[in-house]
Amino acid sequence: MWREAIEDGLAGAEAGEEVQVVAGATAVGRGYADPASPIAVRLWTRGRDPVDRGLWRARAARACTLRAMLFAHTRTDAFRVVHGEGDRMPGLVVDRYGPVAVVRTDGDAARAHVENLAEAIWPALTSWGVSTLVHRIGSKGEVPTLAVLRGEAPPGTVRVEEHGVPFVVDLAKGQKTGAFLDQRDNRRLVGELARGRRVLNLFSYAGGFSLHAALGGATRVVSVDVAAAAHATAQASFRAAAVDPAGHAFVTADVGAFLDGARARGETWDLIVSDPPSFAPSDKAVARALSAYRSLHRACAAVLAPEGILCASSCSSHVDAPSFLGTLDDAALDGRALSVLELRGAGADHPTLAGFPEGRYLKFVVLG
Asked: What is the DSSP string of 204-218?
């Protein structure tokens, strides 16, 4: 619940303290207080049901059962195990990377209950062959630390499989919990579209789209990112998949400057993937973000070959799907006549609640 929705009762509450929320004489639900956060209380139950150890175990078991069903017959050992509100465990994320599972918390209240999470989820993780559970701690821009909750200290990097494709994940320095698992199925789609095409991957980070494209039969893949270290991880993944990185290009550059240069040189690509970081960290930034998306998409359209395919993505929860699609219409693309072939989101291991549209943050639009 947002702070402005709470009239009183937070004074003196500690982060992680279980509280009862009432509206007049009606018991709304119980959850954990987070006095320092704009989300002052994260509700776990309705009415007066307590948030006890039994509930923790039940929620964790339900989340793990769902993932066991989703990935039982796939060659994938990197997936989201707990997805916050989508698994009715608000403020908590658990990602599995082969033998290592990584916890990330949102807010002091969630951080106060990391041990409850570890106790509840560890039995299922060990049954899958996970030998290490760590809590990734660190604010944006900081070098994260990995606090061991169960098992042994993790390695800095780990090799995993995604639809049978091997990837190297940088647990020590990678973003989020180490990688972006929400784009898994979209990466596979790009691999299916890439055969015989020249592919440009913008904001390529660790090269997931690039590797799937190369394995899918792309004639050449150009990966562009401002971070040289991300290219090193991408190239390690290429080698793990027996793909020679030298057969493709890894460009360390600002994406806008790269696209301007490519247009001036008359370069074009048959398949372009644009997956930038969030342009809208808050509601106040939405107008500026939409303008940035329009500029980016117009620049992409300018270097898209005739009959080409553009895959445009947004991970900004404050930008809804209709607004994002508005940055891809004919006017935004400077008259380039493209049609929406698909509008996709995150994989099924990132479930959402029907009444929580903010959870459907990822938009992946395929145009041709």
From this structure: -TT-HHHHHHHHTT-
Task: Tell me the per-residue pLDDT of 181-234, one tens digit each, with 9 for 90 and over.
Answer: 999 999 999 999 999 999 999 999 999 999 999 999 999 999 999 999 999 999
Catalytic position from the list 64, 300, 311, 315: 315
Maximum CA pair distance of the chain? Answer: 70
Q: Which contiguous run of DSSP H or E holds residue 344? A: strand 340-344
Q: Do 20 and 40 reside in the same domain of the chain?
A: yes
Rounded Cα distance, 71 and 52, in Å: 29
The whole-angstrom separation of Cα 81 and Cα 1 is 24
Q: Is 64 a catalytic residue?
A: no
Number of domains in the chain: 3
Residue 280 lies in a domain: yes
Tens of pLDDT, residue by residue over 7-34, are 888 888 999 999 999 999 999 999 999 9
Q: Which two tokens stand for residue 320?
A: 């809804």
Question: Are 90 and 237 in the same domain?
Answer: no
pLDDT at 5: 87
| CATH number (domain holding residue 199) | 3.40.50.150
Task: For residue 11, give its domain range.
Answer: 3-46
> Residue 171 domain-assigned?
no
Beta bridge partners of 2: 39
Round to whole Å and give the CA distance between 188 and 308: 18
DSSP state of 343: E
pLDDT for 123-167, tens place per residue?
Answer: 999 999 999 999 999 876 677 899 999 999 999 999 999 999 999
Q: Which amino acid is at 219?
A: T
Is residue 146 domain-resident? yes
Rg, C-alpha atoms of the chain: 22
Question: At residue 292, does pLDDT exceed 70?
Answer: yes
Domain for residue 174, yes or no? no
Instruction: Give first-to-last CA distance, the chain, whole Å.
Output: 41
